[in-house]
Amino acid sequence: MASPKARMSVAVVTDALHPYHRGGKEMRYFQLLCRLQSSFDVHVYTMHWWPERSRIRRDQGIEYEAICPLFELYKGTRRSMLQAIVFAIACLRLVGKRFDVVEADHMPYLQLYTLRVVTSLRRRPLVVTWNEVWGPEYWRTYLGSVSGTLAWWIERTAMRLPNQILAVSPGTADRLKAYLGDSAPIRLIPNAVDLALIQQVEPADPSEASDLLFVGRLLEHKGVNLLIDAMALLRTDSPARLLIVGDGPEKANLEKKVAEMGLANMVRFRSDVKDNSEVFALMKAARVFVFPSLREGFGIAPLEALACGTSVVTTSHPDNLARHLVARSDRGYVTEPTAHALANGIKRALDDLTSGSRPVETWIEEFDWSTVAGEYVEALNFAVAGSTAASEGGRAASASQQI
User: Fold this and answer.
1) SS3 assignment, position 161
2) Close Cβ partners of 244 (under 8 Å, ≥ 6 residues apart)
3) What is the pLDDT of residues 181-192, one digit of tens each?
4) DSSP class per residue in 27-78
5) pTM, full prediction
6) Can you give the residue range of the structural domain that contains 348?
7) Is residue 1 one of the residues assigned to a domain?
8) Are residue 29 and residue 169 in the same domain, yes or no?
9) Distance from the first to the final alpha carbon of the chain
């Protein structure tokens, strides 16, 4: 009797994981990994985020292995170069691991060079999820002329390393194609939301609710500074309470700004919300979700808010690709990235609110994880099949030459 075929093994490489670190890419992997485990053997390689030994199993048997010690992702308000270098070197350890395909997050870029070496030596495909393209101008603004130019060269070169790129939004796919050409191996697989869980969650107790809600990492480009300025403008005409949920390197500066502007009675912070259900409960209890980001590769949080039936206000900044999602909704408001425009958008959203239930718009169903996970399985199978065909073709050519 024929032995059962071994399941394909997927090595997932990412330097940050939920619940130890919260962000868009971490939430994507959190939702995706258990769903992939039903089709593949999934092994996750990351930093040593947990207190136990270097290798643990959880989430339906997924193996998590620390390939390097835990290093801070940020030095001040910027990504740490030391962390990027150490993690990239640590990825060489995958040479001795068993896998059929590597699926990696594109940040912080340096590890993609190492993984290209590993996968080339092992003759396995490298699939990379690309969340956003920073581009030369943003890098120079972020790091200065010389360092920014070097960083852009690293990003631009890294785009050519994967066998397959999975872009999380049409905007990200278009930006990649602008540099790589239309024939580049890019497949669009968007971020998604757990609609089944969202539908089960009840709104938070009124004592925990606020008129306005922001959820996300407290980073400079998330635009929370802009939101606080807008709150100062709303203080007289449309007083509203704002709840900011999240943590990050900008938190202390934002709290100081709220105190200095005398907005402590209007703005409060929470960094203790760890559970998705609690986030969705707060979204359902909020009157308006405000997402003032100036740079976003997709925008999971505003999509989740729309799925909760909550109105969303965001900015029209060209690097904020979340604006495309918000613009599709009847409850979406897209404003110029200024404090005055944001304040006016919030006022419009509050004024337009109607009482009663707010059904989920049907177009959001295309972003349900039940659909998107299947696209991921197809993409990984396709990458492995293509790699196998290329390998067999090479062996056939070699044999032909010997004959």
Assistant:
1) coil
2) 214, 218, 224, 227, 254, 267, 268, 269, 270
3) 988 999 999 989
4) HHHHHHHHHHHTTSEEEEEEE--SSS-SEEEETTTEEEEEEE----SEETTE
5) 0.83
6) 195-363
7) no
8) yes
9) 36
